[in-house]
Structure to design on (177 residues):
């Protein structure tokens, strides 16, 4: 699994805090609130601990097949509303045995598989891969009609560039399918 980028952390000390430590996201940053009397060592230890907790929470909330399926439904509703076929995949699931493709779709049984190699990527990249596979439920081939539908997703080109960049950097033959 690719290591997630370390977020920018802002530590805020509060004299009013005695023991409690809390953390929350603020855009790209993570704000960690600690008691004013913490030593530097305690600060480092708690920042690491809170980052781990936040990461685990993110993982739980987005890495399940259920979440992936509801994400697919939202995308189909938003971008492919007039194509009911796209809103009815039989299944959408994360797979770990798909090494050369980000995602795949079998239009005959209407199943979609998404490689867990993209789990750590930004949501807008995951959305692109999902939408790409959903469009295959409507247009199986990579025809002009296919790309016109995919192009409804505003960040489609950016996401393709992102994925190409990763393929190039990793030296893998990853591709869209
Ligand atoms: Zn494709």
């Amino acid at each position: 699994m690719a290591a997630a980028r370390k977020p920018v952390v802002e530590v805020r000390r509060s004299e009013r805090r005695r023991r409690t430590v809390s953390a929350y996201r603020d855009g790209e940053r993570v704000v960690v609130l600690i008691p004013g009397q913490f030593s530097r060592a305690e600060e480092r230890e708690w920042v690491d601990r809170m980052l781990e907790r936040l990461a685990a929470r993110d993982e739980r909330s987005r890495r399940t097949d259920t979440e992936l399926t509801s994400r697919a439904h939202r995308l189909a509703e938003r971008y492919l509303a007039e194509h009911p076929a796209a809103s009815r995949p039989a299944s959408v699931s994360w797979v770990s045995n798909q090494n050369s493709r980000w995602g795949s779709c079998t239009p005959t049984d209407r199943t979609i598989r998404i490689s867990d190699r993209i789990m750590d990527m930004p949501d807008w990249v995951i959305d692109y891969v999902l939408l790409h596979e959903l469009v295959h439920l409507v247009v199986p081939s990579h025809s002009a009609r296919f790309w016109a539908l995919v192009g409804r997703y505003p960040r489609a080109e950016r996401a393709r560039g992102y994925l190409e960049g990763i393929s190039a950097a990793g030296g893998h033959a990853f591709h869209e399918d």
